[in-house]
Amino acid sequence: MSALLEIRGLSKHFPVRGGLLRRRRGTLRAVDAVDLDVARGECVAVVGESGSGKTTLGRCALRLIEPTAGRVRFAGRDLLALGGGELRRWRRHFQMVFQDPDGSLDPRRRVGQTVAEPLQVHRLGNAAERRRRVEELLHTVGLPADAAGRYPHEFSGGQRQRIGIARALASEPELLVADEPVSALDVSVRAQIVNLLAELQQRLGLSLVFIAHDLALVEHLADRVAVMYRGRLVEVAPAADLFARPQHPYTVSLLNAIPRIEGPAANDPAVARRGPAAVGGGAIPAALAGGCPFAPRCPIARRRCGEEGPALEEVRSGHLAACFFAGELEQNGA
């Protein structure tokens, strides 16, 4: 599969200010030299704890915020080199589904107006064609046609996220970035939205970047998983391989954090997990850690981990990890 989205050396740094005069005290490396490809028709999940840089990476990739450094190519075109008018024309090909449907929908606009907005911005179709397209989009995401005349507050959280998905699909994009699209929803409707995105991706041939903090959520959705920690990618692998044989200690800790099922079901390999998280009390004190960002929390860290930063390298076929001792924690049965 050819890469639709190519990210190379992407970084986003924010100044840290403090004191009465708000002087600059340092730099927050929200995204730090990230390389990542997304193939046509592929679903790549970007996972990690809150604050790991996932959302910033997604927004920089679509130029919703400007990166500090790096390169982003979409369908062979350098997005960072595009000017205002040309960038607007290209935006119809890549869209974002935002985390909070309450904050991303205008409460004063009817649903039909909201879904039709991308069609108007990109001058797609006439008024009658736009109305038909809105009806089609609402049907596609499982909402009735009369939803077009109602306001966002008349819908549940899951329905509002469906409206956001319909809006993102209006311009027939090739790439969809879903930024934690279910984290603000009730547990009972999360699976419905994830299943909807999976169905749409397959039916429409979309490339999908699914941002999440819960590995369990992406296990059956993603083709590949990219794990982020403190702005860096620490592991990238096909989903099945990553869940079966994680190579980075941080990934192991995320998998161990998935709730275990006790009793007879625990014998089912599809639901059994590795046991308690094996994180914390590493050999490298936080104050001395100048290399691997995970070293202060890593139970297998050595002196080298505090002195050098490991590169993201292939440790198995198609499986990359940024760890000098990749696979050791899993091999030790932790």
Task: Walk me through what this model shows.
The protein is of the alpha/beta class and 334 residues long. It folds into two domains: 3-18 and 26-244, 3-Layer(aba) Sandwich (Rossmann fold); 246-334, no CATH class. Helix content is 31%, strand content 24%. The protein is built from twelve helices and twelve strands. It has helices spanning 54-61, 84-90, 101-104, 111-121, 127-140, 157-169, 187-204, 215-218, 239-244, 249-256, 303-307, 328-331, and strands spanning 3-18, 23-39, 43-47, 69-74, 77-78, 94-97, 175-179, 207-212, 224-229, 232-238, 313-316, 319-321. Strands 6-7-8-3-9-10-12-11 form an eight-stranded mixed sheet, sandwiched between helices. Strands 2-1-4-5 form a four-stranded antiparallel sheet. Helix 7 (187-204) links the parallel strand 7 and strand 8. The longest helix is centred in the middle third of the chain and has 18 residues, at 187-204. It is globular and about 65 Å long. The two termini are 35 Å apart.
